[in-house]
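Notes to self after the Tuesday call (sharing in case useful).
The group wants a holo model before anyone commits to mutagenesis around the pocket. I volunteered. Ligand is KG4. Logging inputs and output together so the record is complete.
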Amino acid sequence: MRWQKDARTKFDHLPLVFCRCGVSGEPSTSSTASGPPSPRGEGKGRPFSSPEAKDLLTLFGDLREEPLEREAFAFPAESTGLLPARRKKDSLGDKIQSSLQAFCERKRERKWFGVIILGIESSCDETAAAVVEDGRKVLSSVIASQVEEHKLYGGVVPEIASRRHSEAIAGVVRQALADSGKPLSQIDAVAVTYAPGLIGALLVGVNFAKGLALSAGLPLIPVHHLRGHIASNYLTSPELEPPFLCLVVSGGHSHIIEVKSYTQLRVLGKTRDDAAGEAFDKAARAMGIPYPGGVEMDRIAEAGNDRAYQLPRPRVDGAPLDFSFSGLKTAVINLLHNAGQKGTEVNLPDLCASYRRAVVDCLTENFLKAAEQTGTQKLVAAGGVSANRLLRRNLQELCAKSGRKLYVPELSLCGDNAAMIASQGYYEYLAGNTAGMELNACAQRSIE
Ligand code: KG4
Ligand code: ZN
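Result:
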């Protein structure tokens, strides 16, 4: 696992108030044990249930645990069908009630400032946590990437991804809190990616966020992953506000979205088969470029001639704003097979450049068409593929020519991160879009 920061430091002083949500490896029976367990899980009352739990505790050193207040578990029976009600005078229900009251108070007084949100992201192969103030100011952002491990298999292995998220999430969240200088008591809400993505991976983040929100008495905000990608632009460009048109291009999605407000969105066009990132990764794999091929193909393409190979620009009949990339990918695979059979050499930089241009042409053409149709002057790009050099250059050029304004996320915010989730979480929070303990993860869900 590749860490952006050294996650082995700075944890000791933080109380692990959230370690009872199942990721510490602590058996469920121990949640009723009184008093703090001994460090590193040794001794009475804290047997290890799995090798992962041991690794986790070893990795993070001495996890001093503060016992949770009993009241944290006293919530009204109607909030969950799974646990018995143990109503106490300062129950979680009361805590949620009072934080809602504080929120309404804030809303009434038009005090929108100083809202600090912890974001959690685990939809694919990055475990991330971040603390963001008022949706725009990143106080901390930590990402633990699994990419090196998935590289061995040529793509993300869902089962491995879930396991690595489980191992990393506690440390990543603690690191994010420590880096932000904000203890949990100063966090106003927990935002988490709940859809779309790999279901096992999403469940790790969602369950962790639920445990944390429940134990700390904080509101829980479900965030759609693609809405998060769009919000990465709010972090990069403080002046950006809806309405605008956004091209969201990632490993799993290619959408043209009308962003009417922070929480009202309409899909104008989408891919009928492969996503743009997927099209890059699959073609790159056929060319022998390791996963995630889109990134490397973009680098190699810089040295190539983008007119060397003739590739199609697939269109979708009757849906001019939709994309289709599978035919383009097949064209490259056929070209490689033919060259192999004939024994002719393929110029890799030229093929990468030609393929990249074909994908980018499809994306920019439809995006500009949508801008003309809707009369939108503000264009925004988001998602992993928005890091693509040619896409950024071409969009910049087209916008300059047509007098439109372009916004793109800074490179560090193009890929999956939790700062974008906390940012969007802020706007969902202001719109009152919170969830209870019934929140579940969804592999697929519309952004609308
Ligand atoms: O948004 P993201 O990090 O994860 C998903 O939500 O899917 O996007 C990852 C995708 C991968 O397919 C990766 O190859 C692609 O974004 N990608 C790129 C570039 N950087 C990342 N594709 C083309 N050019 C890039 N520079
Ligand atoms: Zn993403």
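Two things stood out.
The pocket of KG4 (ligand 1) is lined by residues 124, 250-252, 277, 280-281, 292, 294-295, 298, 383-385, 387-388, 415-416 (CB under 6 Å).
The two ends are 34 Å apart (CA to CA).
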